[in-house]
Amino acid sequence: MKFSLTFLPQSSALALCLISAIFFSACNRGRGRVLEIAYVSGVQANLRDHVAAVYEKAGVVKNGERVEVLDHDRRFVKVRTATGVTGWVEQRYLVGQDVFDQIQKLTADNRNDPVQAQGTTRNDTNLHVEPGRDTEHLYQISAGEKLSLLKRGTAEKPGAVATPSRSATPGSNPQNNDKKQPVPVIEDWWLVRDSHDRVGWVLGRMIDLDIPLDVAQYAEGQRIVAFFVLNQVQDAGKKVAQYLTVVTEPKDGLPFDFNQIRVFTWNVKRHRYETAYRERMEGVLPVTVAQENFDKEGLLPVFSIRVKDDNGNVTERKYKLNTPIVRRAYRPGEEPVRNVSRKAVSKKAVSRKAKRKL
After folding, report:
1. pLDDT value at position 259?
2. Are 47 and 85 in contact (CB under 8 A)?
3. pLDDT for 339
4. What pLDDT, on a 0 to 100 scale, did the predictor assign at position 310?
5. Whole-structure pTM over 0.85, yes or no?
6. Is the pLDDT of residue 167 over 90?
7. Which residue pairs from 46-55 have beta carbons closer than 8 angstroms and sit at least 24 positions apart in sequence?
8. Cα separations (Å) of 54 from 48, 60, 266?
9. SS3 label, residue 289
10. Which residues on neighbouring strands pair with residue 307, listed in sequence order?
């Protein structure tokens, strides 16, 4: 039997080559196919050339950097940076696109929130998407960075409980007090804006307020939650700020943001701060400060606070400072009913009796 070789037509051969090229090209692209997008949540992490105890350093990725995920291997992830460098990095240094999107949303939603205080970080800390130590975070803030404080929140401290007091209340059975269950430890958190205009939650104890020492020394053992410059006065050729401070008890987890306000004005004769006004209430942030024209009194600084009543309803109060006097600034229809003095009531009663006798 004889065999003969048959050759494909030129057009068919060309088509076969083209199909082969596409096939092999697709295979090569599959090796570098992007599975997902991730972001570096650690301060800095090394890229390995392969997953092993001994490896070569392929590159470095830094906090907030966007990377493409190419492969997974248990606790390691193969990534490609924006500059095209590829390598393996530990999964714990990465977060997903969803965490990045949550930080972006927090930043957009709170872009115009009034700043309640300026502060500085005590240590390196994380910028979380929600209050809580176990919540996701992306960016890390260095110690000493300046922050703008926007809102207060609370969260339970993981794995921590407070032991209830054993002291018996009147009429209670001491044996029942021993059966009380421990309660969770609640921590204060702050929604902050960092120096890069990124917004997120930071543990409250990681922040020191940048309030002037001349005012901070009058805290009287309480915690200053927020502070505001109301205006400035002239003293010996220099301008001195006058402050509103918002104060609370020195502990976390309270059901209100503050329970006292104090206004400090500058005595130009004695060259010192003095308490011009203080008031106690259960208040919630934010506090706002502005300027308003009051006819004969002229342009004065005003501040508004939000007060919570026993039923949880929140109402707003406005105050004005006409140095050194602080008074409520009532809106139309808000003025309180003035009490008639006892002397005036007595005179009216005598008058009515006299009329009846006539």
Report:
1. 97
2. yes
3. 57
4. 87
5. no
6. no
7. 46/87, 46/89, 47/79, 47/81, 47/85, 47/86, 47/87, 47/88, 47/89, 48/76, 48/87, 48/88, 48/89, 49/87, 49/88, 50/88, 51/76, 51/88, 55/88
8. 9, 17, 66
9. strand
10. 283, 315
For 148, the token pair is 């703008």
In eight-state DSSP terms, residue 92 is G
pLDDT per residue over 84-142, tens digit each? 999 999 999 999 999 999 999 999 999 999 999 999 999 999 999 999 999 999 999 99
CA pair distance 3, 240, nearest whole angstrom? 107
CB half-sphere exposure, 191, CA atoms < 13 A? 19
For residue 25, the model assigns a pLDDT of 42
Question: What domains can you pick out in the chain, each with its CATH number?
Answer: 33-109 (2.30.30.40), 113-164+181-210 (2.30.30.40), 212-334 (no CATH)
Q: Please say if the pLDDT value at position 230 is more than 80.
A: yes
Half-sphere exposure of 243 (CA within 13 A, CB side): 24
Burial class (CB in 10 A: 0-12, 13-18, 19+), 195: exposed
